[in-house]
Write a structure and sequence with these properties.
By secondary structure, the protein is α/β, with parallel strands linked by helices. Strands 5-4-3-6-7-9-8 form a seven-stranded mixed β-sheet, with helices on one face. Strands 1-2 form a two-stranded antiparallel ribbon. Strand 1 and strand 2 form a beta hairpin. The longest helix has 13 residues. The radius of gyration is 18 Å and the shape is globular. The relative contact order is 0.14. S-adenosylmethionine binds next to helix 1 and strand 4.
Length: 257
Amino acid sequence: MSQPSRDQFAFHDPARPEFWSERFDKGFTPWDQHGVPRVFETFAGDVLRGDRVFGGMPVAAVQGGHAAAAVERDRHRLRTSNDPNDPSHPSSPSSPSRPDARLPHVLIPGCGRAYEARWLVEHGFAVEAIDFSPTAVAVAREQLGASHADIVREADFFDFTPAREIDWIYERTFFCALPPAMRPAYADRMADLLPRGGVLAGLFFVTHKPSGPPFGTSLDELHRLLDPAFECLREREVDDSMALFAGVERWLEWRRR
Ligand SMILES: C[S@@+](CC[C@H](N)C(=O)[O-])C[C@H]1O[C@@H](n2cnc3c(N)ncnc32)[C@H](O)[C@@H]1O
């Protein structure tokens, strides 16, 4: 996403899918982390243990309508299980054949290679990953393998219908990929897509960098954009950023009011 040479590329508008397809085609993907961020795994692990609240209730209770006792039993099982075949164990992916209905439904917009989508689906989450670049969709499907390829689809974040109600929207290098003029539309769309209690959680590129992509932002700007519809629950440092984002990536969690 840093600019090697403008002449190297035919497309210069990051609001267009061709811009991104050309970069995937030419192997210019400096944002690609080749895996999932640690802070993402920590958050998703907390969700699996029922330690995160979506819609005002612990997640294990939200989706399945389980009684509190059943939720506690699940939490105990998840905390104490050493069984690598347990589909909900945070450190033990096992490609469950069906999503766990108690877990939040996740949307990953601008998914790129979709490493996080794979992690989530292998841990039992229902995931919808979208990207408007057909080349990105192709590389994501390859990364996901035949058994999970269908969780990715070609779609524009600003104009698509989710397959189901979404509880968690995961952000990484999507906001910073958009031309800054699109930020109010991003905030409005996030608010439209999430029900009350739903969460926008992920990584934001917080630095002064007006040219891009990646385009930098500030915490002040994020609050201005998101505060009307979201409450900011948490901000965390990120300790395993790739060089391009080192020291300027922040994990933020926003809950839909
Ligand atoms: C910098 S890449 C990030 C990919 C991925 N999130 C990651 O962390 O590796 C930005 C991605 O967003 C996609 N994108 C940009 N605008 C989009 C839109 N309006 N709808 C869907 N995808 C979009 C691009 O095609 C590209 O794959």
